[in-house]
């Protein structure tokens, strides 16, 4: 149903043609959580089924979680953020599950309801660069491709950089686009986005260690056989 009232901040925000979500927030959040958990579980399972690392050793739990993480990122970036990239102008009046998910999240950041230039640019890069590259990183890790840690570094650095800018631009705006209630500000805005700071930081550090070890092996003097 079209309405001039909306739940977003600042309260003076104008959203012509806004249509309220048809689903309660818990259903939207639950759908995303279930899909994300399913992708992580699938990545974990495939990491065990492929026989582990070369030489017969099994993958560590951390490596299997990394597989699940990149598979989940591919799905979220490609589907959810891909939808926003393509439909951001129509989002206030749009209906359907993906529209309702974004309308629920926008309670934490109303820039998603107004086609904010930075938000659209960031999500477009995320959807069409980090989404496919996340899937390539998943495949590279699964198949032990030599470029796997290069891809892990690239994607993790891109995710971290985008999230830092995301927080920084909202900080400069005085945190004015979020409902101040704890669920929306601390749960959605800080909590959900904080995951994409902490996990990429850990994966970035891991990739640097792996690449540095490989470079040390290349740089090590080789003794000629007599």
Give structural notes.
- It contains 6 helices and no strands.
- The model has no long low-confidence stretch (mean pLDDT 93).
- It has 226 residues and is mainly α.
- Helices cover 66% and strands 0% of the residues.
- It is elongated, with a radius of gyration of 21 Å.
Compact overview of the structure:
The protein is 66% helix and 0% strand. By secondary structure, the chain is mostly helical. It is elongated and about 75 Å long.
The 3D shape can be described as elongated
- Low-pLDDT segments: none
Proportion of residues in helical segments = 55-70%
Summarize the helix and strand pattern as letters: HHHHHH
Helix-strand category: mainly alpha
**Count of runs of 4 or more consecutive helical residues:** 6
The rounded Rg comes to 21 Å
Major sheet details? none
| Proportion of strand residues | under 5%
Q: Mean of the pLDDT scores?
A: 93
The CA-CA distance between the termini, in Å, is 84 Å
Number of strands: 0
Give the secondary structure arrangement, pairings included:
Blueprint: H1 25-49, H2 61-87, H3 97-105, H4 117-142, H5 148-172, H6 182-219
Give structural attributes.
226 residues; mainly alpha; 0% strand; elongated
């Amino acid at each position: 149903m079209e309405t001039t009232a909306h739940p977003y901040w600042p309260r003076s925000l104008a959203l012509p043609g806004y249509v309220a979500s048809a689903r309660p927030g818990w259903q939207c959040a639950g759908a995303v959580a279930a899909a994300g958990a399913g992708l992580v579980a699938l990545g974990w399972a495939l990491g065990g089924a492929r026989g582990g690392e070369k030489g017969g050793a099994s993958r560590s739990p951390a490596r299997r979680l990394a597989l699940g993480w990149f598979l989940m990122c591919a799905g979220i970036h490609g589907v959810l953020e891909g939808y926003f990239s393509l439909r951001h102008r129509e989002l206030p009046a749009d209906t359907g599950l993906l529209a309702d998910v974004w309308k629920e999240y926008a309670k934490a950041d109303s820039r998603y309801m107004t086609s904010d230039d930075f938000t659209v640019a960031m999500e477009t890069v995320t959807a069409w660069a980090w989404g496919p590259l996340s899937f390539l990183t998943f495949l590279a890790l699964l198949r032990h491709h030599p470029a796997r840690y290069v891809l892990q570094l690239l994607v993790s650095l891109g995710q971290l950089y985008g999230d830092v800018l995301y927080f920084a631009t909202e900080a400069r705006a005085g945190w004015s686009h979020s409902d101040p209630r704890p669920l929306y500000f601390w749960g959605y805005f800080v909590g959900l986005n904080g995951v994409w700071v902490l996990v990429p930081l850990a994966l970035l550090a891991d990739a640097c260690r792996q690449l540095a070890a490989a470079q040390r092996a290349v740089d090590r003097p080789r003794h000629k056989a007599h």
